[in-house]
Amino acid sequence: MRDHGSVHIGVSGDAPHRRAVVAQVSTNITGPRFGPRVVVPAGMLLAATGLVWLTGIGAHTSYAAHVLPPLLVIGLGLGHVMPISFGAATAGVDAGDAGAASATVNTMQQVGCSIGTALLNTLATSAAAAYVEGHTPTKSLLAEAQLHSFTTAFWWSAGIFAFGAIATGLLFRGHGTATVDLQKHAETPAVA
């Protein structure tokens, strides 16, 4: 990977506002039209596709051609997963319990991210250590080991998302019920 300054990375990076736009579109258009049983697994499969695409990075690949496109696909996928899942998780909850339900969903998301980060870090670190084991560490070997650790984490993440797509496809209720619940929940005024 090439060294870039923070300004270059900030300008060319996968900015959070891009994902926010995708999340808004998915929440307002695809979610009500198709329901979480279709949208969430499709989003997970998109994210898995982007992660598999990222496994092709190399030491001299360019950001614009080889990193940004898969990140946009991952962002599109996650934009279809997160807001729809959060909405479905709190749909049908009584107005008086909406805050507690939302807090529970947010807490579980944070716990899941923490456990996932620890797991993927362990897998990536183990892959890098195994890659350099028995070799004289050179700058080139360490760079290759780092890339190997990234691709290992990308493959595992893609597998986790593929499993998540199957699980959510089986666990979410049918299209009609979930969509009606989400729309009904959005139309219910909050109680102060």
TrEMBL record:
Subcellular location: Cell membrane
Keyword Transport: yes
Keyword Heme included in the entry's annotation: no
SUPFAM superfamilies: MFS general substrate transporter
Membrane topology, from the record: Multi-pass membrane protein
Entry's transmembrane regions: 38-59, 71-93, 153-172
Main localization of the protein described in the UniProt heading: membrane
Protein keywords: Antibiotic resistance, Cell membrane, Membrane, Transmembrane, Transmembrane helix, Transport
Name listed for the protein in its UniProt record: MFS transporter
Organism: Streptomyces sp. 900116325
Lineage: Bacteria, Bacillati, Actinomycetota, Actinomycetes, Kitasatosporales
